[in-house]
Design a protein that fits this description.
Blueprint (H helix, E strand, L loop, with lengths): L1 H18 L4 H9 L14 H26 L1
Helix pairs in contact: 1-3
């Protein structure tokens, strides 16, 4: 039963990670020497904030389930 839940959490984690917006533009500007606000404090809002929180919860659930499965075996 835990294995099935782990598979569902894993697939959901992959999907949520793919839905998040990329942040590579700031890194490219920083490496190329262009003016960038890479280290500026930018707060996530709206859908980005929700996706980030879901990713954190799914990541924690993934590790907890993996540990529980390993302890059971």
């Amino acid at each position: 039963m835990l294995e099935i839940i782990l598979i569902v959490v894993s697939v959901a984690l992959i999907i949520v990670c793919l839905l998040q917006s990329g942040k590579t533009d700031g890194i490219v500007n920083a490496l190329s020497g262009q003016n960038s606000n890479l280290f500026a404090n930018q707060k996530e809002r709206g859908a980005d904030l929700v996706l980030t929180r879901i990713t954190i919860v799914l990541g924690i659930a993934f590790f907890v389930l993996a540990i529980l499965i390993r302890m059971k075996a």
